[in-house]
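MODEL INPUT / OUTPUT PAIR
PAIR INDEX: 1
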Amino acid sequence: MSNIKIHFIISPQDYAKDFALRCIEKWGQTNIFQASYIVSLGGDGTALFAQQAALSTYLSSGKIIPIYSIDCSNSKYHRGVLTNHRVKRPDEIEESILNAKRTKVYPLKADCELLEPQNGWPYQTYYGFNEIAIKTSDFQMTHLEVKFDDIKTKTIEGDGCILATPIGKGGYYYNLGGKDFKEGHLGFQTIASRQVINRIIPDNSSVAVKVISHHRAPSVMRDCNLVSEPILSAIIRKSNVPLIVLRDRQRGE
């Protein structure tokens, strides 16, 4: 009898539901705080949701729960880059988890000052695994000052800016024209700005963003989801929060 305890995070899409029911019938559904693993069933969006759930669990309890993400789409047009593709049956999950390669992932962290305090507190912290963007939520241009660790302040007039991780470099950042970069670095790119800036920086760097025009204050977007009220400033850097992501080993590993 296996002692493995799994908390499943399931996509609302129809293609995941049947497989999810069979998985829960086989393994049950453990409360996330008692789980030994988090398994996401869906695509990349579900995998990111699972990582945010693991992050929230760590921040509230200090417990690190490894994450194993299964692609359930069975479509050649929908193969996630954050998901694993070997598991086809619920009884294959345990062996795949135990044989998977463990990778530590440190999300980006944005320490922000809000334009309007929430519950009397003007500061909020947000985390993102693919990217964190400072972006307008309407069609009005925003005016920002951006400062990197090692160069003078740059001025941006446009929709905002984005800082991407190696995990997220092939997504929104890439579609904005961001350049490729390797592990150990982060990619910065302006968004629809008159001043086009693309900069590859070491992943121990920070980016400070200050809003100049408060009546056009942008918000924080993480992993393509808008998550904040308008902000006055943000400092974005790689966090020291460790998560463990499990990936199927490639041949020869």
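PAIR INDEX: 2
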Amino acid sequence: MIIRAVRSYWSAPPCFYSWAGIIPIMASPPFCFLISHRVALPLSWKGQTFFAWRIENKMSVMWNLWHGCHKISEGCRHCYVYRRDSLYDKDSRVVTRTAAFDLPLRRRRNGEYRIPPGTRVYTCFTSDFFLAEADEWRTEAWAMIRRRCDLSFVIPTKRIDRFGVALPADWGNGYAHVTIACTIENQEQLEKRLPIFKALPICQKLLLCEPLLGSLDFHGLLTGDIDEVSVGGESGSDARVCDYDWVLDIRRQCIEQGVSFHFHQTGARLRKEGHIYRIRRDLQYSQARRAGIDYEVFR
């Protein structure tokens, strides 16, 4: 087993920035492509140009096929979707299928897919893929995902208990190009969601500890089929504190249990050595990278 410091595949946040990487862009769904201030790549649709971003030679896009959600746990309290929708007097509790629903299957005039092969697709970041209101659309969504096996889909969820609803008949032990990211924000949700997550037939399993609201004890349950644990603090003006000691303790447990670890963002308020640092939104990801505590395990 080899362990080395690397950038994780979970290297992109669900947020929107200008070319300079500083000014937030309040882009309305479905046009939720991530923009890197390092390398921005144009994607056009119906005469309009949007941008995807490239890190480590892998392009990534956001695919929000439905919009709207319901708060179900403490991690939802300051949901960024609710914050953004409030600027437009939009009710985030109303779940609607978006105009980008068939985005992975759209083609250019030359017949090529608009989302090129090899792209990482961050899926359903303005809702939850396993939301009950989306049950009627999920079969079709899975069919598109299955068809685009040349892409890499990352699907986060707080509803891992609903994973089996409308699951494809040929799912088996999972699609190799799909990563399911189970979100846990505190010990209570770890105790509820992690046992369910571990028991499910999924090829690529990611634990997303964001927003991290307290210390976590995994009770040795990271061994086996968990591929990575990715940690981030809470963003926004009302963000709760993320303690750096919590982050380091999760890292310690990951290394002891042979699981990859990634610290992908600090959050807006980070406590370190007794001092609370207020970190601007545009610096939260770069500051996490500068900590230099990421590890990847190659089995």
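PAIR 2 NOTE: Residues 2-298 form a domain with the TIM Barrel fold (CATH 3.20.20).
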